[in-house]
Each structure stands twice: as structure tokens, then as C-alpha cells.
């Protein structure tokens, strides 16, 4: 899957920006990361929240004010669930209505997607690649609750529906973005994995997580796309590195010391030709954003790269299999700080790519 895309320390963003206008947001993206643009989520709008944005189409979805839940006790739930699986099979078989399917992103909840496609369509030539994103299955299914306040992950039927909903919405994104004739990357955003292995998720097994990843990643691969898993904190990295994902995206600024503990897994991952997305540009602390420069971050990355090189991997291979990203999204930052994060991402990438040349 990675063969049609060369990472080569290109800059890639995570997704959210602290803005209220999608046109302004995509202009900011295209000014800083034109090589691999992405569609932008604007969390100032509640319908563009990371979970809420991908809830439409879920059987039994009930919205009461600001609260959304899955009502399995409703009179129409069984019929809706049956219809969901019928539409799922139609989508798998290519018989679904591309734009009116329950698996299609809609302009009222994902306007950034359509703003991106309009702008890419107007470019004189396609970018090197294009990126979409979606809530990861673990984060989604542990955040969404049923009518009793219980996470749907712990109901096998609802978990299966959640995974299939996300798989088809990811697949839909790949199909839509593929028409521009460049590689398509879909990141599954998994902030909840920071709690994996803790008492909060003690009853979730590695096998369950692995099965969720396998299904959503396979849906992306089946459409010819590349799949990434983004975790913005520490986690049990082997379950991510051993998945079929093409890209592992992590907070290299704050958690490299935890990531490198799994050296054997990292070595095997990179040697298989897959990509590490280094979140080397800080996003969590304003002081870090203000203090750091492109040169300081390049030096920090090179120190980390040397630890990977010490595993027996050539520097040129590490660079070829690296992307440069912010450590997380910038939706909760001030616009000034978010803009600096984008500029740092661009500048760090350019400096590292000059090493490749």
C-alpha cells in the first residue's frame, strides 16, 4: 500500500483549526502544507466535534439538545439496525447511492471536506497526496453511549455497527478523494488509546482493539488508500505497530521516550516500508509553541532519529519513511499559536527535505 507514496519528511496536519470559516481554514492549509492538504474540522461548531461529526447514520441515534446517544430500547431500533446492515452490504457491493448513503459525509456536519474538494479541483495540478480523517473505532465506541449511559464498545452488536459505520465512512472518503489522481491517506484519530491498559479500559483486550483496527484499515486498503493511526499521547504501542496500518502518528515532542521503549516493534515497522509520522511540533503548551523554532525542532528530531538509526536503520531510510506533523490538532489553540504550529511544521519539513536533496 505504501508503494505509491513516498513520505520523504513531507509536512502533514492533524485536522482541527481554531477558526470559524472553512474557506479561510483551507487557505491556511494550502499555504503551509500544499503537498498533502487535508480537510479541516472547526470545533467552534459542535456538529464538527470529533465524535458527533461521524455519528450520523448510526442505527438508533437519538439527539436530545446537546446530548446524543444510541437508543436500543426505541420501537424502531431493530428495523433501523436491519436497514443499517442492508445498506452496509449494498455499499460493500457498490450498489449504494454515493451521495445519499448513510455512509456519506454531509455538508452540514463535514463542510471542510467539501471545501477541500472544491479547492483541489481548482488546482492546476494535483498535490502529492491528500489526507482525510475520522474518529478511530476505539475512541468512537468508548465515547458513544446507549440510553443507559453505557459505552457501546461493551455491546458486541453496537460495537460491530460502530466499526462498520466508520469503515464505510473512511472508504467513502477514499473514493471521493481518489478522483484527484493522487494517493489518499486516511488517519484514524485515537486519543482514547492514551487510556488503553489503564483501569478505565481494563476490560478491553488487545485482541478486541486489533480486530477493530483490522476492519477499518482493510476498508481503506480495499479502496487503494493508505491508513494511519494517530495517538496524541502515550499508549500500548505494540497494538498499533502490529496492526496493518501504513502510518503510525505520535507525539514525538512529548512522548518519544515512551515510544522508543518498543524498539523491536519500531524497527520491524520501518523495515517493512511503513511510515512514522513524527508529531515533533508541540501543540499542548503555549509556552512550548512560543519558545520553539524550526531549528530547535529539527535538532530535537535529529536526536530522536539517531536513536532509531542506532537500531540498525539507515538515516536515508528513516527520512524516506517519515512525515512531519504537529503533535495533535490545533483546534483548542489561539489562532496565532495555531498559525505558528502550521508554519513550524512547514519549516521543519523543508529543512529536513533539504537533507534528502
TrEMBL record:
Top-rank taxon: Bacteria
Entries under InterPro entries matching the protein: UROD/MetE-like_sf
Protein name as catalogued: Methionine synthase
Species for this entry: Desulfonema magnum
